[in-house]
Amino acid sequence: MSFPTFHTKNSTLSEKCLWISDGNRYICISYEYIPHTGAITYAASVLRLSAQSGTPKSQQISNHEHTTTRRFKIRPVFTYIGSYLEKEAMVKCIRREMCHGAGCVGPRKPIMRTDDQESLSSIEMLSDTSETDEIMVSPKTYTVKNVKSIKYHMMVNEPHGQSPYTHRTIFICFKGLSKTGEMIYGACIHHDPSWSMEESDDPVIDEESHYDTAMMRLEKSPVKMIIPEEFRHQLKKKSKHSEDIMYLILDKITKRVRGNMVIKGTKL
After folding, report:
1. Which end of the chain, N or C, is more open, meaning fewer C-beta atoms within 10 Å of its C-beta?
2. d(CA 136, CA 139)
């Protein structure tokens, strides 16, 4: 006898080493999904076989499960998909994110820089840069090791070249102290033309370069914020999601200072 099931705001779904067969590709995924917020943390690896190879061998399965488990532990992807998705729809979102979004593994961190030169992709040169109002945070804020990374897509009614609209992809790296709410972030924005506010494919982006730039700004010229007390728990390493903090950062970025979006602060 089957029973109807449902999820609440406290529900969490997770699986380790779920396998998907996609043509000649066999995909191993580990994930943790929060249905209420749509927040998902995942890592994956892809085994590609020729048409003549048949099904994966036991050693290949073992190797990819080891890789996926390590990635999920050390460098998972953290992003947002739809809320309260059924499992099949959720897995499709992960697959789409793997192909056209954050990929199979999260950004490298921390990133060590030996000079003051910012290494940006040609697309990033189109992004706004800015300095922001000075907010004091304690030196301890800069030593926090737990860095969270988020990618957010945004359609805006602003022309981009010959197109009437702009598709922005915002990459954010942030960290902070849950006790005091002191937080710093760095961001990087990819601009892409769009001809419709309702329908737009996610652009193909060099994800790693943009995350590198966001991380570099976090380290060298961060924007400072004080998070309201009700959301400070989301700065903790084991917080199930950081949705409210994400929207606070997005509000800060799009607020603009002297006409520029706030993606970096004054250099340390």
Report:
1. N
2. 9
Tell me the CA end-to-end span of the chain in Å, nearest whole number. 63
Which pLDDT score is estimated for 111?
47
Q: Cα 231 to the chain's mean position, in Å?
A: 19
Q: Residue 49 carries which side chain, given as an amino acid letter?
A: L
Mean pLDDT, rounded, for 110-121: 42
Query: Residue ranges per domain, the chain?
Result: 13-100, 124-255
Q: Are 149 and 78 in contact (CB under 8 A)?
A: yes
> Which band of pLDDT confidence, cut at 50, 70 and 90, is reported for residue 126?
very low
* Rounded-to-10 torsion of CA 120, 121, 126, 129: -20
Ramachandran bin of 105, using left for φ above 0, alpha for ψ from -120 to 50, beta for the remaining angles: beta
